[in-house]
Amino acid sequence: MLTSLISTLGLFAAGVSAHGAVTSYIIDGKTYPGYQGFSPANSKNVIQRQWPNYNPITSCSASQLRCNGGTSATESAPVQPGSKVSAVWQQWTHAQGPVLVWMYKCPGAFSSCDGSGSGWFKIDEGGFKASNGVFLDSENPSGWEIAKLMGGNKQWTSTIPSGLAPGNYLIRHELIALHQANAPQFYPECAQLVVGGSGSAQPDSSYKAAIPGYCKDGDSNIRVPINNRNIAQTYVVPGPPVWRGASKKARDFSA
């Protein structure tokens, strides 16, 4: 009993220091529960790779950056090129930073898929738009697209790229919180998808990166003095260009 109480309190303390995680997915209208870090016994059979704690990741070189330390899940969800995948955050509290959505084609079974190597490619992103609002951490409304997730049970919807070759894939949703000057916080989670159809498209190497490896701690779009009024209020989302699939180009989210 005491051990259980201590464990629960430890999870609670970790949760207080952090600010949100993907808690469910909506894929082509069907809801898939995510991993429940506060009650892992209730979420053994989920598509989301189970992560060890709620603590933010603070370095581009941390091994946990790939899937928040998650290495396995018991389930997967079927999708097709063109399918809509929504990640839902039960809680999110910060209005500055980018949203990144990545995929990775597993060479075989999910059980042996660790996401290593330069195989990750972005299928969606959201950064800063001056037309939406302001850049700084102390002003409203926020011009950062991450602000759309603030509050309860907000979602970010992306489209599986057209013509994508079938197979087992990881999908990785990542929030980079920039609300503290020069102190980024990374919040990534991964889920398992089985892409069907008869497509054959795959992004070339110019769209791919390794995780960790796609950013450096000293990069200007990672280490951001968000409360400095003298900096240029523009932002380029980290990583390679977004790949939309066969015959589609990436959107430009930089302002």
Automatic annotation (TrEMBL):
It is found in: Secreted. GO terms for cellular component: extracellular region. Its cofactor is Cu(2+). It catalyses: [(1->4)-beta-D-glucosyl]n+m + reduced acceptor + O2 = 4-dehydro-beta-D-glucosyl-[(1->4)-beta-D-glucosyl]n-1 + [(1->4)-beta-D-glucosyl]m + acceptor + H2O. Pfam families: AA9 (PF03443). GO terms for biological process: cellulose catabolic process. Residues 19-235 form the Auxiliary Activity family 9 catalytic domain. GO terms for molecular function: hydrolase activity; metal ion binding; monooxygenase activity. Residues 1-18 form the signal peptide. Belongs to the polysaccharide monooxygenase AA9 family. This is lytic cellulose monooxygenase (C4-dehydrogenating). It comes from Cercophora samala.
